[in-house]
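[scheduler] slot 2 assigned
[scheduler] job type: sequence-to-structure, two independent chains
[scheduler] chain ordering preserved from manifest
[runner] begin chain α
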Amino acid sequence: MVGVVVFGGNGCVGGAFLEQLALLQRNEGTTLSNYGINVIVCVNRGSICWEGDNVEKHDNLPIHCVKVGRKQVMKSKRLRKVLRKEEIWIVVDFSGYHKQWLVDFIELMVEEKRVIQTYVYISTDSVYEVCCDNSDGDSDDYVKEGNDRRPMDKEMRKKLARRDSYGASKWRCEHVLKSLGKEHNFPFIILRLADVIGPRDRTDRFLAYQLSALACWNMKVAFGVPNAPLATQPFRVVYSIDVGKVVASLICGDLSCNASSWENQTYNLGTREIVCVETLARELLSIVPLHFDADKHVDTTIKLERMDAMQYFPSITRRPICIERAQRDLHWEPTSFTTIIEETCKYNLQHYNEDGFMESVTELVSDLKSNPHNPLHGIKAKQLKMFIRGARKKTN
């Protein structure tokens, strides 16, 4: 039997992963012990922004919660005690943002004489922002996994790291994981995610656009999108639930039986569709009327207006990622872009009263106050909440 250590698990992608494990048990009428898994240890700070962030709601899963920050992992007596329950562990890391965090945990495992069966590391397509463009000589329109080499010039590396510190940090984590995997003889897999959309998103990016579309439709004003070229810059997104499914399959599904095909490999994950901010805005504006009257035809009177608007998407400046390798090795079958938008909008409206939603409302109103050129400039939180309540009645 093995245990599973989950770093995170109380957010957008980590929560989706745990939900997939719970669904696996319910749908197949089995338990994780049938897949050789005896215990799941969720390591996080215990912060809850959305109702679904609470990992303890999965009462059908053998979960132990260890509330500790990544910086304190080495000092956590409780974590050490729980790890002694099993000799062999699968690690699923949703929150590894600094390389030292990975080093500390792997050192802890070595000290406790525990074995890492597989390390699943959740990374980002932002790593390409700090790498050489087209570094593998590829002239395609997409960024492949091999385009991940840093520039030789030290000053250029610093410049790129300053431009995207998140991408630089995740790249360093990937690099140290590969090195430690080789040193301690454990396999790993790295999943580089496009911009994530889905339930319980704490970045507020998607919700800001959804709320803007809702307000624009009610007030009959234009939807503000960034000026060119940002408005039409192509990118992919990824559905948090799709990521949860593939990670679950890696540790106890079909993919777990064919680990030799993906061990020590890196994969880009994103939708089949390549979109832009204008595509996202139009999709949202086509959905909003349905929140109020399911029989109403899509209102095409709301126009897009380019301006110095807040840029929530994309988080990258490079070309869209290529997902062919994931489709081949991981049987990656992403949900359609339209369905992702529909389902995420529905979830958000159904959870209108939660702290995560209301914080997003306040933040959006603040952003709009700072942009006098936006048609929604000056909108009040009370007014926006009224629009939300109207949409929520039809959604329920």
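[runner] end chain α
[runner] begin chain β
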Amino acid sequence: ESLDRLKADHALKNGLSDGQHVLMNPTGPPTGPLMHVHAHVACPFDGTCGKDCVGTQYGGRRLPSHVRAHLLAKRHRGELIYYSFGMGQDISFDISMACILNTTALLFDPSPHAAEHFKFVMERLGQHGNELGTAVDSKLECGGCRNAGERKAYWSWIRHSPSPRSVFRYMPVALSNVTGTQTFYQAQTQQASGSYSLVADMRDKGGQVGRNVAVRTASLQKLMAEFGHHRIDALKIDVEGMEVKLLELFLESKVLPSVVFVDVDAMCCCHGTPMNCRRLKREAKEVIRNLAAAGYSHVKHGQGDYTFFRMRSLRAPFPTARAA
């Protein structure tokens, strides 16, 4: 099915209006108004997880100052293309990146918890002047929030975001090497967090004990064709063990973003058998070596959060989109 149909089905299921959901042109590049963020505007979650770090302590990632400067220089020459695979219940990084780079954020995550969380975010985005309902913010879930105070702080940042809803375009689809339907596996210990993986070996007993759901998947080529894109400038991957296969896909396809933010869960957070987890960790180390061979350097944040960047790509002139 087309991504336009997926969007319509999801909006109908969740009772979202166009203003709350996605404004998307499925046959060409995303359209719609961008905000005009100036240097003095404080972007939400920028620096809340530390120096050169964007997002919450739970969902934050490193954005070195020189990488930020190069991205902003590219943004000055034209719109940056930002894809984010995997949202969960913490959208802080995506909210902040859309503001910092003054660009559209294309978000993909078919998990039920992510869809619900995105709906709550869109209902509250930029509503800082409307105090009606803020009392319930402390009861809404958010990834990594340990108490009512942290939940309230998270949703306060959302309410004070300067980004319009139209720059967040959400699709309930997972990136895979095939377009179709696949199984999303959940770890028994992660049912409250809504964390799923397409990799059964990342989960208890090969994915046989948690709650599993069937989700729609699409290949990288399919997604980029739907949006009319020939490049990706900044990419976030947080897909619970599928990151190794996805990074291999990007390397094989020669789609090499300037910056890649990736949670390498196989390095730290595998819930499968010890033998499977060791194998996945070896594969993760191999793809990190392959990224280095492709010209990427990296910095780490926490146990498994990597920021990969290609300085040669960041210095290159802004590419001209090919004619459709």
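[runner] end chain β
[qc] chain β: The chain is about 30% helix and 15% strand.
[scheduler] slot 2 released
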